[in-house]
Write a structure and sequence with these properties.
This protein is of the alpha/beta class. It is built from 10 helices and 7 strands. It folds into 2 domains: 30 residues; 202 residues, Alpha-Beta Barrel (TIM Barrel). It is 47% helix and 12% strand.
């Protein structure tokens, strides 16, 4: 009987540790070291629009849509994609958009060594600087996952972790319809929100289409679109 109780106790402990581990990896609001932001507490109707991945040719479509409303967004780019398409990154910088670091290879940076993570961050930072961006570089973890080593290395570089508070494409039934994406953004928008969209691939075309739907509505509601660094400095 004692052996059974002991076994059950260890099983419970194992499940609790697994739950804690999963929570730390995926939390949008907490990490063990450094600064993490998923939104900003403010009464001002300001909101940050962010895009992950790329740059690809779709970056020009996104920029065109944003130009209609004179909006600057924050683009979290992959180092390998910047290497393969430096002109796309340079075009984003020249258009006045903000560039963030989304790792070099878009690997899950959880069970990785400090050296591997350091290389992912430093190589991408260098490519971002080569593209002409001179502002503060923040980091968005691939798949939103982080644990111990990633925050440790980011702290070394004095880089903030940027998550998000609105991500309509998380839901497959929403991601396939631009009207549903826009509806989700509008209904969940709040002062200090950080919106995450994708749009660099053909599969994300609905996200690009949604811009012409939700941006005018939020502007009409009095929201101002700012970059992530501008949001953090409010």
């Amino acid at each position: 009987m004692k052996r059974l109780i002991k076994r059950i106790t260890w099983i419970i402990i194992a499940f609790l540790l697994l739950f804690l581990f999963d929570s730390l990896i995926n939390s949008r609001s907490f990490q063990l070291l450094g600064n993490l932001y998923s939104q900003i507490e403010t009464n001002e109707k300001i909101i940050a629009l962010t895009f992950d991945d790329g740059p690809t040719e779709k970056a020009y479509e996104i920029m065109s849509a944003l130009d209609k409303y004179n909006i600057k967004a924050t683009f979290y780019l992959e180092g390998s994609q910047i290497r393969d398409n430096p002109e796309g990154a340079e075009a984003l910088v020249e258009a006045g958009h903000e560039i963030g670091n989304h790792s070099f290879s878009h690997s899950r940076l959880v069970f990785k060594s400090a050296n591997f993570i350091d290389s992912e961050i430093s190589r991408t930072n260098e490519l971002i600087r080569n593209a002409g961006f001179t502002g503060n570089i923040n980091f968005r973890p691939p798949y939103g996952k982080k644990f111990l080593m990633l925050p440790y290395v980011l702290k070394k570089y004095d880089m903030d972790t940027i998550m998000w508070s609105i991500e309509p494409e998380t839901y497959p039934e929403i991601a396939k319809d631009s009207n549903l994406i826009a509806k989700h953004v509008i209904e969940n928008a709040a002062p200090g929100s950080i919106i995450l969209l994708h749009g660099m691939y053909d599969a994300n075309i609905e996200a690009i289409k949604s811009l012409d739907i939700f941006i005018p509505v939020l502007l009409e509601e009095g929201y101002e679109f700012v970059t992530v660094n501008e949001l953090l400095n409010k």
